[in-house]
Each structure stands twice: as structure tokens, then as C-alpha cells.
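Fold it.
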Amino acid sequence: MLDLRWSCWLWSVVIGLAVATASRGLAEQPAVEIYVAVDGDDTATGTVDAPLASLTAARDRLRAIRRSCDHPVDGRIVLRGGIYRLPETFELTAVDSGTQSQPVEYTAADGEVAILSGGVELTRTDVGADKVWSFQPPSHPTRQIYWGAVKGVRARHPNPPHFLTVQAWRRDGGVELSMEDPARLDKAQDVELVVKKHWDMSRLPMKVQWNAGERRAQAKIAAHAWQVEQSQQYPQRSPEQIGFMENSASFLDAPGEWFWNPASQRIEAILPDSEDPLSLPVVASQLETLIHIHGVHDVRFRGLVFEHTTWLPPEGVYVGLQSNIHVNPRDTQSVNTIPAAIVLVDSSRVAIAECVLRNLGGAGVSLDKTVNCTIAKCIFREIAGNGVTVAPRGGDEQTQVTGVPRGTRIEHCSIAACGTEFFGSSAIAAFYSDNLVIAHNEIYALPYNGIHLGWYYGSHQHTTIEANHIHHVMQFGDDGGAIHTVGSLPGSIIRENWIHDVRHSRWGDQWPISSIYLDNSTAGVRVSRNVLERGNTQIACRNGTQPELNDIRDNQADGQQLDAAEVDRIRRSAGPDLRRNRFGPLRYDDSLWPPLVLYFVAD
């Protein structure tokens, strides 16, 4: 193997690096390019003709080159097209930083699609009764499998378009559920109860006993789960709430359904309806986080696809509070936030641009204690939790936080179909921040808020939310809106957004929803020149919010305030410009949150 100092020199020759003369001083050097391909070799040179095989090897090769060189070296790691199945989370630390003028870049090769996947492909083993297939188990339990690009349905009862209904919550942890099909409960001993509660939800392990005479199930929530559930007063538990049960062999009755069999440690499934279902690759999500960036500056990810993460709620219990903040099952006096596929911590000038985040079992991106980081021209689809979380919460939910993200920009993104498993999710949830900009995004097809801004105490100021196109949100929950604010937000601006079709759905409860929802003592916000159409309520001030503490003026609400030319200008300027995104704009055929599409068709 070549000495690394010679390797550095050779790299300089290959890409045309020139060492500056003494009279001119040390100039910025062009970036070293290291290539990676799915059929590469980690012992190769890393050139376009001899690529490496893994992202980790490329990162380590760049580290070694930098250590060996006596002049600054910035790097560009180019991934050829294909699927890179990550065996573990890819991590970047301070040594992987670039410079402000030449950030280190991780990018897809021009015209090619490079996918970073946290999943493993499963092998079919045998087929049993009722055409139920068994699959070789992955290394770790999972909550998601995919038939090609389509997500499998975790075996559930009742099937869409039906829900069961809570008849009563009992103090001993019992729940009475209306049922119509006792045969499905014959073997349903250990299952997960999913209950929608106003603006969030719970997932609770339980045992079931069918009462044929009264046509209802007596469900007993596991003791530790009931302790977590009853520790919170809000969102309220009440009769007539809807839900379903998941993950029992007795629920396995529809094409594409699957469940994890704890006895055999196998995945069992019914093949989906397809022209050739046996040809579809079957992928199980395994990693919780794909990319973890800590203490890094001046790094950029561009043109990559991120997919196939999973998240297992601790102790199998999820009691949601709002926008992915949930009770810590191990300490009910504290909270946690659903983890993300891409995590940025204590980092600055990191950019995620022109990427696709899809088929994720947690959140998309989270930023904590960051400075001047950017998410731009990205596409988010089929995310179990939030699309983007700014300042994820942990510990005492009412504790004042320090080191909030500063200078974050989320712009020109298309975010749809978040909250597919955790129904209290938002496209963007920013709990604490300073100088946050959310601009020119399209946000739609969501069960809850489009944008959630604020939490309990302070540390949230100078946010600008402008020129976003937000529509068809609040598809499942209530007590929220297209833009939902909480608490004191001094110096914040909500302006020139186009918001439409934010209405109570048939699944919403009695709490209100609004296009712009100023909640829980919101103060210090200017709300102006927004075009608000086809909503139940356009601007609402609730729970201690006083309109005089905010500046609300000149908003278009179904034909009021602004002239037609100005309304047209705001509509045309709202939303993203994805013309230069290599993936182009992606849309659903309709604007309903995906898990409810079947219900809509059934109507």
C-alpha cells in the first residue's frame, strides 16, 4: 500500500490540485473526489474507475488523506447509483468538517439515484395455510416491511375502512371495545391497542377477551402501559374514541398484511395483490438512525435518497402528547421525542439539499443545538412521525432549555404523508429555536398540524413562516391547524402563506381546528397578508391567547381584505420551486392522508 503522504500527492495530481507558491501563500485547494459504488471494493483507490464499496470506507479514506497532507484538503464523496444497505448508523464528527468556502459534500453521481437504506432484504422460507408465507427473520425486530416500494400493513383488526370504538375506560386499566367479529379474537392474546385521542394517540400492549353476548371485547391494558397512560390527563381519554388492534396472527386476513411472530421469531405475511408478487423484494427496516452528525461544520448532503428506518417504542408503549413528544415509559415525569433518520447535534452550516426522505419508521430530520443549518428542496414522503423536528425534547417537559437551534432554514421542500403511524405528527415541529425560517414549502396530506411552533417556556423567537402552501392537513385529529403556535414567540412573523381546505374531518372530535391557530397564550406574533380559503375557522385565538398581544391584520379570508391581484400573487409565489431538484416534484393522486385513502374511496 502506498504511504499516505504519497497517496495525498497522487490525489492532488489526479484531480489537478496545485500547491500555492510561497509568495502567494496557501490557497484553497480543490476538493478530493472519492467514488463509491455498490459493486466497489473498499481496498480500491476510490477513483471513478476503481470505486470503494461503502460510505464508511470513503469517509475513513478522506480522513486519512487529510491527516497525511500538509495543506488543506476538502472532500467530495460521490455515490454511484444503487442501494446501499447500511449495517449501522453512519456517523460524522468534528474531524469530518469542511470549510465555509468548500464544504465536504456527500452527493449522488450526476443522473444517478443513490439510496441509503436502513433495511435488509428478507428470504422467503415456506408457505403455510391460507397462503401465509414465512420469512427468514431480520437481525432485529421491526415495525415496518415493504413489498418493493409499498409499505406492508401490520396485521390489524378491523381492516379499513372500519374502526372499533371505545365504549368505556375503566380505572383498573380495562377498556371496553365495540366489536363485530369474535372469530378474529380467538387467538388474539397479546396485541397492541391503537387509540386516537383528539390531537394525538396511544399505542398500548394488552390482552383481549371477547364477550359474545354483549358483542364487545373486554381488553386489559398491560399494567406498566396503563401506568404510563393514566399519568397524563391530556389528550383526554373518553368514550366513543376510535382505534384498532395490531399484530396478531388472527388478524392476518388481507393481501399485504404481516406480523412479527414472537414465538417463532419470524415474519409471517400474506403476499400483496400484484401481477407477480413473488418477484417483489421484501425489505424489513432495521436501523433507527441512518446518519448521525455531531460536532460537525460545513458538510452538505445532496441528491441522495434515505429510507427504511424503524423505531420501537420503549417497553412497547407510546403515549403521545403532541407532535412526536411522548411520555417516557421509564419515567412518566419526563418526555422523549421520536428519533429521526438524520440527526444533527451541536453542528453548524450543515445542509441537506435536493434529497428524498421516504418510508421511514420514525421522524425525518432532527436538529438540536445547531447553528445556520439548512434543509432545502427536499421531498418527504411516508414518514411515521414528524417530517422535521427542531429542538427535540427530552427530560422534564416544562424545563427551560438552552442551546436552542439558531439560524435554521427549512425552504422549498415538499412534505406530505407524515404521521402514518404516530397520528399526532406534524410536517415541521419546532419546539424551541432562534431565527428560524420556514419558507416556500408545500405541506399537505397530514393527520395533524402542518407546522407546529413553540412549547412551554420561552426560548423561541424571531421565527418567520412565509410563502408556504399548506392544504389538506388536520385529516384525522382536532385541536390544531395548518400553522399552530404555542406560548410566547417574540418577533415572529406569519405572512403571505396560502392555506386552504383545513376542515374538520369525519374522524375529528369536538375540539376546534383552524387555518392559523394561535394557542396557549401565544404572544408577539405578526399575522399578515395570508390567503386563507375553505377552512372551518381561519384564525383562532384560544387558551389565554389575546389578539391584542399579537398583530393580526390584512389577511384574506374567503374573499375579504386583499384585492384579487394581490391574492393571485401570493398564491403563485407560495410553495416550493423544485424545477432544479433532480427528483422533480412528487405528488399523490389525491390530497388525503394515505392511511385514510381507503376510507375515502369506501364512501
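The helical segments are 4-14, 55-68, 223-230, 564-573, 597-602.
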